[in-house]
Fold each of these.
Amino acid sequence: MKTLLLLAPSFLALPITSLFILLPLYVYPDTSASAWKNATAAIAAYPKVQWQVIVNVDSGPGTTGYPTDQDYITGIAELNSYPNVQTLGYVDTNFTHRAYSAVVSDINAYATWQSYTEANISIAGIFFDDVNNTAVSHASTAVATYMHNASAYAYANVPSDVTPVVFNPGSLAPTALFSYCDTMVEFENALAEYANDTTIATIPSAYRDQSAILVYNTTATADVKSLVHTMALDGVEAVYFTSDCCYNALNGALLMQLAAAVQAG
C-alpha cells in the first residue's frame, strides 16, 4: 500500500536533495500565523529543500470538521502556497490502543479540508503518532493489522495526488511495518542521546531511505551541518532538529541552519 514509488517523481519535480525536513509544527500559529514565520521564512529561503510539515490543530484535526480558528486557516493556506511543502495531518494512535474508528474519523476530517472554499487548507498526507513498536523483531498481528488498515485508509481517502504516510514509533520499528508507510521515524530523542554514525547504524540499511531522525534539545554549539551531512551520506530520508523539547517553539536561526545543511547534503 505504500506510495513510495509515487513520491519520488513528486520530489524530482523540484531540484532538491533526497533528504527532506520533517517538521512537527505544533506551535500555535497566533495572529495571522505570525508564530509560524520562522518556519515559512526558512521554507521560502530554501526552495530547493522539500519540507513535510505536520499540522496539529488539537491533538488531531479537532471536532468541528473544518478548522474554526482563522489563524490556523491562514497558516495552513500559507504553507500550501509553497511548492516545496507537503502538509500532513496529525493522527494519534496511542500505541494502537486508540479506537480504530477514532483514527478513521480524524482521517475523514482531514480529507474534507480539501473542499473548504475560503482558502487552500487541503492536507496532502497523514502523520501517525505513537505507533506501537514493542515487538522490534516482528510486528504483532494486532499491531500490524491496525497500522496496515490505518495507512490503507489514509492512502484511499486523503484526496491528494501523492499521499505521504509517516509512522512515528520514535525508535526502531519492526521492519514489517515499513511496508505500510512511506517514512518511519526511527529516532526521536535529545541531541545528547544522538550518536551520529552509531545511531544511524542501528537502523537497518535496507530501510534507511524510509527513515527519519528527529532530534530535540539541540544546543547552540551543535554542528548541525556535519550531522546532516552524515545522514545524507548514509541514506537517511528525513530529518529535523529543534532547540526545544516538545516542538512548541521555532528557532529561526536553527531552521535556517538546518535548511542550508539539507540543501548542501
Amino acid sequence: MKQEIFYPSPNGDEDNGKKYLGAAWALVICATLSTAVRVWWDDYNMIFGQFVNLVGLGLVTAEVFNGLGRHMYYLQPDQQRRFYLIGWLD
C-alpha cells in the first residue's frame, strides 16, 4: 500500500474544527427543540431519529478533538488513526 504524503497548508496549522462543531451543535439544538415541541406518545420514530442525531453529534465532536478541521500534515499518526476510525463510524 502506498504511503500518502501530506504537505503543509499554505495557511499554517489553522483549526476550523470549532466552526464545524458550532454549526453542528446549533443544528442539533434546533432539531431537538422542534422534536420536543412536536412529540406525542406515538412518535417513536422521531425520538429514535433524534437519538441517532445525538449519537452522530457525539462522533463529530470526537472527530473535532482528533483533527477534524485541521490539515492532515499537522496531525500525529495516532490522531490520524483515531480520526479515520471515528470518521468510519460516523
